[in-house]
């Protein structure tokens, strides 16, 4: 039968190819033609073969650069090779090897990880398309052969010789191996393809029974199906099976075994059709290895690690397991300063050391990506087992690593989780190990940290607060308390400090130390601070309307991020205007470290606010390392001395001379700069008297009043 084959495969957009790439494709096509032209009978001239393969090469080039990337062109190329009769036993192997070894080089493409990955995927797709097309062609031949066998039985005596001749021709010339046996399994005949495949002559094969060809690792299901077939319970079955060759090597095959019945329907013969799929099987194994191993270090990758971890939890035979989640400290600095090549070599050496130091049954070292590695220990006895592994890894990484003339010292942070498998999942184990790794980094790096459920609960609560804070501001869950600022000379309330609180629906009343830091980390401190400022100014306006000149000013804390907000001056002016509050009734407090480290732009904002009439105060003064010469140039009106200096003045019977001297010096300094002084943390009458004697202008603390609601401030002002 003559098959008409379209030998031309048009490459999409050939004119768009770079001339250099096109030349490389032509060169590779010639090499490809030379490699496969002797492996198959193809009804084309050498020039036609080269032209056909060049078109396929251009399809590969477009597929390599396509976005999005697809493997379908590789599948189509495999099918077209079979259509063009490139079906020799070595054709696929030579093609796949040539693509992997020469294609990228001929095209002048840098063999980076992306291109290697794409090429491997196209190799696999090509093999799959080739195998599918070859199988379909083989199955068609099988059906024709089976029909011929059945026809031979049913044909009349006159047509028997012609039918036998046709069968013998197909039997002899078929590209797949064919064997015939009686119902007892004794081999009667085999064709040349099967002899070549297994390395036995037909005489040698006739000495065997089919069961003699059983491989030790054959699945039980294969032979159960065989027993059903010989019993006449089924007419055919298919399976993948290994055979041993005469030279001791093994060959992977796709086996189709069919039953031939006599005129009465009783089983009479077995016909085996055997296709050699060793190359495809080896390629699949290679592709699976590449898919499950890190191409840089050769270690198992994330996919293989998760597969192994899943098997541990599905089996649970070992009852316990532990993880060490490892991240290199400072790897980004090495990568950025010395280059990615040095960084890659460092990762290879680290992977080698980890694999060397962590060995034995039930242990797996995998690279999760980047500079992260994970160690799985199956069947751990207790936490100490995993701690010992972590200590061994840290010791292994202590010695310097020499790479390209550089002596590099590397350390690692390790998160450790060890627990019983019951009551937990693989996802829980991974999550907790990841969390613990970041605890180790936060605790100082170059160490391990052990998972702690209590610490995790606190972190979860902290995250919950952070996540719910934006909605809490919209739901008006925040409110403001006020603490009086009292003039020490006559105990008059001259101001109040606005202190934000959070009435959380789940955690109850939260003080600022529970959420202010979170607000600064998330950036919510700016809208929260703006809300507190507006609420405080609105309240100050109400006091001004009720108490007139005796109304207190409000002091509002300003976070560092707020002070750097370019909209700060506009926000303050707009709020003051909308509340009709004179600027001198507002005081903004910044910490000493924030205001001393203020850059030019934020400092200009503070000057603008000061010129507007807003008071500026330095909070917690004395706790930092201030440049006192710089202090006189700042737009500041008030110093609030930190409460830590007040402890030595608290006792009724004696005072700490050092604390007295420090406070006296700070007061004298402030007054020399014409600044007011407020003492924080005043808790006893003795403190208040001593501070007044020293010269402090204002006091704040529980001796005078705790933070209170606006209505309580009203009562205090009326008294």
Automatic annotation (TrEMBL):
Gene3D superfamilies: 3.30.70.270, EAL domain (3.20.20.450), PAS domain (3.30.450.20)
Occurrences of domain PAC (ranges): 237-289
Residue span(s) of domain GGDEF: 319-453
The PAS domain, residue ranges: 163-233
Signal peptide positions on this chain: none
Limits of the EAL domain: 462-719
PANTHER family found in the cross-reference section: BIOFILM ARCHITECTURE MAINTENANCE PROTEIN MBAA (PTHR44757:SF2), DIGUANYLATE CYCLASE DGCP (PTHR44757)
Record-given protein name: Diguanylate cyclase/phosphodiesterase with PAS/PAC sensor(S)
Naturally occurring in which organism (per UniProt): Saccharothrix carnea
Lineage, highest ranks first: Bacteria, Bacillati, Actinomycetota, Actinomycetes, Pseudonocardiales
């Amino acid at each position: 039968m003559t098959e008409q084959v379209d030998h031309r495969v048009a490459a999409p957009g050939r004119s768009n190819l770079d001339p250099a790439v096109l030349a490389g494709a032509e060169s590779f096509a010639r090499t490809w033609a030379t490699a496969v032209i002797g492996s198959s009978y193809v009804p084309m001239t050498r020039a036609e073969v080269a032209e056909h393969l060049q078109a396929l090469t251009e399809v590969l080039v477009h597929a390599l650069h396509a976005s999005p990337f697809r493997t379908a062109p590789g599948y189509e190329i495999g099918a077209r090779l079979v259509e063009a009769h490139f079906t020799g036993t070595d054709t696929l192997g030579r093609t796949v090897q040539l693509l992997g070894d020469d294609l990228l080089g001929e095209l002048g493409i840098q063999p980076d990880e992306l291109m290697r990955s794409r090429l491997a995927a196209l190799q696999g797709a090509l093999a799959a398309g080739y195998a599918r097309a070859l199988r379909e062609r083989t199955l068609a031949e099988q059906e024709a052969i089976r029909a011929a066998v059945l026809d031979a039985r049913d044909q009349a005596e006159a047509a028997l010789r012609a039918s036998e001749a046709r069968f013998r021709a197909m039997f002899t010339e078929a590209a797949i191996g064919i064997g015939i046996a009686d119902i007892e399994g004794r081999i009667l005949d085999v064709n040349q393809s099967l002899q070549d495949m297994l390395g036995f002559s037909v005489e040698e094969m006739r000495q065997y029974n089919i069961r003699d060809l059983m491989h030790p690792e054959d699945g039980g299901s294969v032979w159960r199906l065989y027993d059903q077939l010989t019993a006449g319970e089924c007419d055919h079955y298919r399976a993948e099976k290994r055979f041993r060759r005469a030279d001791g090597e093994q060959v992977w095959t796709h086996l189709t075994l069919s039953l031939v019945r006599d005129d009465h329907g009783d089983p009479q013969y077995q016909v085996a059709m055997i296709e050699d799929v060793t190359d495809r099987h080896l390629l699949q194994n290679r592709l699976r290895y590449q898919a499950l191993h890190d191409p840089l270090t050769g270690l198992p990758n994330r996919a293989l690690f998760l597969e192994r971890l899943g098997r541990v939890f599905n089996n649970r035979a070992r009852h316990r397991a532990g993880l060490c989640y490892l991240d290199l400290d400072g790897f980004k600095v090495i990568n950025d300063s010395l280059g990615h090549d040095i960084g890659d070599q460092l990762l290879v050496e680290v992977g080698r050391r980890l694999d060397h130091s962590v060995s034995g049954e039930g242990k797996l070292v995998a690279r999760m990506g980047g500079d992260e590695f994970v160690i799985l220990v199956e069947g751990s006895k207790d936490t100490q087992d995993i701690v010992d592994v972590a200590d061994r890894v840290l010791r292994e990484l202590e010695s310097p690593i020499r790479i390209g003339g550089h002596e590099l010292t590397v350390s690692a942070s390790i998160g450790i989780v060890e627990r019983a498998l019951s009551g937990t999942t693989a996802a829980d184990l991974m999550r907790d190990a990841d969390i613990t790794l970041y605890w180790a980094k936060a605790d100082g790096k170059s160490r391990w940290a052990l998972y702690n459920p209590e610490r995790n609960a606190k972190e979860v609560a902290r995250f919950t607060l952070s996540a719910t804070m934006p909605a809490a501001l919209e739901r008006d869950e925040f409110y403001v308390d006020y603490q009086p600022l009292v003039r020490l000379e006559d105990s008059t309330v001259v101001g109040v400090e606005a202190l934000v609180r959070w009435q959380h629906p789940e955690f109850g009343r939260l003080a600022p130390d529970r959420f202010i830091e979170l607000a600064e980390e998330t950036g919510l401190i700016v809208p929260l601070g703006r809300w507190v400022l507006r609420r405080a100014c609105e309240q100050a306006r109400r006091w001004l309307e009720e108490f007139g000149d005796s109304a207190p000013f409000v002091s509002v804390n300003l976070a560092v991020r707020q002070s750097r907000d370019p909209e700060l001056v506009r926000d303050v002016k707009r709020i003051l205007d909308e509340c009709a509050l004179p600027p001198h009734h507002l005081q903004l407090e910044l910490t000493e470290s924030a205001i001393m480290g203020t850059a030019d732009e934020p400092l200009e904002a503070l000057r603008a606010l000061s010129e507007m009439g807003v008071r500026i105060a330095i909070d917690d003064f004395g706790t930092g390392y201030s440049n006192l010469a710089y202090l006189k140039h700042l737009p500041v009106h008030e110093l609030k001395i930190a409460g830590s200096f007040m402890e030595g003045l608290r006792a009724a019977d004696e005072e700490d001379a050092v604390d007295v001297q420090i406070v006296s010096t700070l007061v004298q300094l402030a007054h020399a700069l014409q600044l007011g002084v407020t003492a924080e943390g005043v808790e006893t009458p003795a403190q208040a008297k001593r501070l007044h004697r020293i010269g402090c202008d204002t006091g704040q603390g529980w001796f005078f009043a705790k933070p209170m609601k606006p209505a309580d401030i009203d009562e205090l002002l009326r008294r």
